[in-house]
């Protein structure tokens, strides 16, 4: 038996190494133009076949023209990466934030991964801010080269940063016509794009500008100390608290946070960085029990910089924010009865996983086959959140404020759109990056372009909050518009939260004065 396990392990190892080598060879190979034009047609045909609301933000005529136009520009052989930079801007013009090609890049071996784990990041150790086409460092917790927050990076290895920002901005689309999403997403993905183009380099020269003075720095990928490696190991140990608050080992922080903002426990504050779904039910149960026990009058929910995630989690959260029965989303449309079967059940399965999934496939097939229904000539996917639901017994009865910004996307926008429509909360901040009237996501069909081998995940489900639609084709608009500047972030000021706290203070004073009379 042990011998069999060893043979299987050896086969997996050999297959993995060969797979990495083959993949990397594909990344450098130039593909004939006629084959690339086939990939354009394949991508568009699959999007039309599966996307349930394709022409919401662009007409069929205009989109047809864009896909035809990009084909005419392909006259020479291109690598997959070069082809990606031609096709992705067309897909981003569809203006569906969840619909995007995966940028092709070289894979690294397990040995290279281990080597990187033993080194500190080079660019990832800074925090960034993008304004127009300019890139600023706003956080340097390790004091690398003593670079000050507010320093602008002008060039990387003598290539202008504006060249990269203009190049990468074309790859990004939000839901609809809002303008708030791109700066947040671009600053988060800038170096992911950069590494996809350049690879994992061990050094880079950056030219900077601070207080009118230019300076060059040579960044290197330093080895971690024994203390760093020990801390990494300790951070990976999941305690009960870490699990419930959804601990993120990468940056030693928590996905969810709950606390009171005043000594009298009248102002409760919940911050959610991502609706991951992990241990969320336990977190909200504990938080709202504490809120009820302290009889807090105000609740602030912070979903700034929350790109979304689990529909199940926002469904649970909403049950604590209303005192009446509710329906979170409208029935979710799909293109056909067979759409749920297009989710690539065997995707990314190794030999053992493939064998296991082969046995479980009949159950998957049966469940997905009966997961749709037809009504008025359209097909819908059965989701628990589109059924009437009751508020939780510990639902909050006080005043709710919600903090939003351009990086509040997907599930964050579904939640805040519903809260605003139902007049359950006052929204403070800036327009969300996700659409007010819904988005296409749910689950995906992972297509692979046949010649360039680029991944194309396509969202299959139209998810819309149960609201009266605004038809603005934009994000969720705040009730109170307050912008956050780079200087606010650097100096750890929070004008959006401060406005809420001032509003609560004034309301408390007014109520106290009223009671005295």
From TrEMBL:
<dbReference type="Pfam" id="PF03572">
    <property type="entry name" value="Peptidase_S41"/>
</dbReference>
<dbReference type="InterPro" id="IPR029045">
    <property type="entry name" value="ClpP/crotonase-like_dom_sf"/>
</dbReference>
<dbReference type="GO" id="GO:0004175">
    <property type="term" value="F:endopeptidase activity"/>
</dbReference>
<dbReference type="GO" id="GO:0008236">
    <property type="term" value="F:serine-type peptidase activity"/>
</dbReference>
<dbReference type="GO" id="GO:0030288">
    <property type="term" value="C:outer membrane-bounded periplasmic space"/>
</dbReference>
<feature type="domain" description="Tail specific protease">
    <location>
        <begin position="237"/>
        <end position="483"/>
    </location>
</feature>
<protein>
    <submittedName>
        <fullName>Peptidase family S41</fullName>
    </submittedName>
</protein>
<dbReference type="InterPro" id="IPR005151">
    <property type="entry name" value="Tail-specific_protease"/>
</dbReference>
<dbReference type="GO" id="GO:0006508">
    <property type="term" value="P:proteolysis"/>
</dbReference>
<dbReference type="GO" id="GO:0007165">
    <property type="term" value="P:signal transduction"/>
</dbReference>
